């Protein structure tokens, strides 16, 4: 029951962190434009700057506020959708691995009695039969857990590899963009 609560906290927290990260990323251009526009309002004949969260080429010109708002909303919803998708995969894989770990812990606790009063004392054939059944059940359970892990690894290897590769490429591209970006300092 503790694992279920911990995984629920992790799932909710990670989902909120990912969505809030995308919202913060999308709101940065608005704050930046607000700051630039306040500084430009001191000059005469200045234009209002509008930046979008994600650079892109669109089949329309973003030349008025309604097109900017529509494009911004489209990018915000797309970013939130991507955040939900990626965080859901993270939550799914982490939860499945936690379940496998829990099953292995249960198996370990079943095989090794830590309490002196629950040790099996073999006095007759009935005790031997109980011990044999307990051991047989543990072996079957262990085999089932290992089959689950093998199937999980077989099914999730390539999707997880692609997600990790995609995330690594995205981080590298963002780092490259940040390294080559010219920052205008206004004093």
From TrEMBL:
It is found in: Cell membrane. Its main location: membrane. One of its GO terms (molecular function) is odorant binding. The chain crosses the membrane at residues 12-32, 157-176. InterPro entries: 7tm6_olfct_rcpt. One of its GO terms (cellular component) is plasma membrane. The keyword Transmembrane helix applies. Keywords: Cell membrane, Membrane, Olfaction, Receptor, Sensory transduction, Transducer, Transmembrane, Transmembrane helix. It is a multi-pass membrane protein. It comes from the Eukaryota. GO terms for biological process: signal transduction. The keyword Cell membrane applies. PANTHER family: ODORANT RECEPTOR, ODORANT RECEPTOR 19A-RELATED. This is Olfactory receptor 111. It comes from Aulacocentrum confusum. The gene is OR111.
């Amino acid at each position: 029951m503790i694992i279920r609560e911990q995984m629920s906290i992790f799932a909710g927290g990670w989902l909120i962190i990912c969505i809030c990260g995308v919202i913060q990323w999308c709101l940065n251009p608005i704050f930046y434009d607000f700051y630039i526009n306040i500084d430009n309002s001191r000059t005469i004949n200045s234009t209002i700057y509008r930046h979008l969260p994600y650079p892109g080429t669109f089949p329309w010109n973003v030349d008025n506020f309604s097109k900017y708002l529509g494009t911004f909303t489209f990018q915000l919803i797309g970013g939130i959708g991507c955040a939900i998708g990626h965080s859901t995969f993270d939550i799914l894989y982490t939860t499945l691995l936690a379940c496998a770990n829990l099953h292995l812990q249960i198996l370990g606790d079943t095989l090794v009695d830590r309490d002196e009063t629950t040790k099996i004392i073999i006095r007759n054939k009935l005790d031997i039969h109980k011990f044999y059944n307990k051991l047989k059940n543990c072996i079957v359970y262990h085999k089932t857990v290992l089959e689950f892990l093998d199937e999980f690894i077989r099914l999730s290897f390539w999707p997880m590899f692609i997600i990790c590769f995609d995330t690594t490429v995205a981080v590298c591209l963002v780092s490259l963009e940040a390294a080559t970006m010219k920052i205008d300092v206004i004093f």
